[in-house]
Amino acid sequence: MLKNLLATVGLVVIAKKGFELYQHYKEMEREYEAWRKANADER
Predict the structure, then answer these.
(1) Per-residue DSSP letter, 22
(2) What is the distance of C-alpha 23 from the center of its chain?
(3) Alpha carbon distance 20, 40 (integer Å)
């Protein structure tokens, strides 16, 4: 039973970290698109 509890806690921690990394990636993607549009206007 303790193994199942620890496995569940580990899964939650990994899922949370994965979601944080996904949010960071999407934020970087938005910043890149904004930068690209701003630089496209200068050309």
Answers:
(1) H
(2) 3
(3) 30
Per-residue DSSP letter, 43: -
Tokens of 1: 């039973």
Query: What pLDDT score does 43 carry?
Result: 61
Model pTM above 0.70:
yes
The DSSP 8-state label assigned to residue 34 in this structure reads H
State the Cα–Cα distance between residues 27 and 35, nearest whole angstrom: 12
The single-letter DSSP state of residue 41 is: H
Residue-wise pLDDT tens digits, 2-33: 999 999 999 999 999 999 999 999 999 999 99
Three-state DSSP state, 1:
coil
